[in-house]
Design goal:
The chain contains 12 helices and 8 strands. With 252 residues, it is α/β, with parallel strands linked by helices. It has a single domain, classed as Phosphoenolpyruvate-binding domains (TIM Barrel), CATH 3.20.20.60. β2, α3 and β3 form a beta-alpha-beta unit. The longest helix has 19 residues.
Amino acid sequence: MDIRPNRVKQALAAGKVATILSGTNDPDLIDQLGTLDVDGIWLEGEHGGVDYADLGNLTRACDLWGKTSVVRVMDNDYATIYRTLDRGAQGICVPHVNTRAEAEAVVESAKFSPLGKRGMFTSRQGFGVADYLKTANDQSLLIVLIEDIVAVKALDEILKVDHIDVFFVAPNDLATSMGHIGNMGHPDVQKTIDGALSRIVQAGRTAGMLVNTANVERYTRLGVRALMTSFFPWVQSGVKELAERAAAGAGR
């Protein structure tokens, strides 16, 4: 049996845009979303309720539909990262990576020797895969969040770290770190975001960004290739339209 391929990594390697959908930490909802043409499902373990006991069923649901399971962990911790992979995650997203050393720590935690120091254990992704310990490094997706102004200042050094697939600029925390809490649209914040994305692309690395239908074309034109978006705004707009149409119909 061959190792299960990582769809997000495949898309990025082919020079395509990779899409990751967030908003669910429930395997039944992942089943309902499975028919959508997205590459990955974002599982929220920093701000959400995802825990180790949940990961088996969540990642199995992603596997069933051929989606890459991307888990945002709560911190840049060795055991947290490799245990999340051991529970079946195909991708790891690490928050607040602010230095080159912190980026190197992500790789050390997530990759088996000789690339890193991940604990020698065959995760669920490796069951029945004879060469799992040799091939797992090729299929594990690593995303680091650039979400503090100190990270932007250290970005050139962070970008030198190999084996990180996506350098994801997180606008909300970045705005807060710049003194503009809740104001991602502030001109200084937008200028900093655009500058960071351009530096990532110019360095030959993959840039990631939180997007919506209003801004996705602008960011893809800047060279962003890893896109994360929540489905909830579409639910909100759909329900709003339904309610307005119902009210209009009843008033006739």
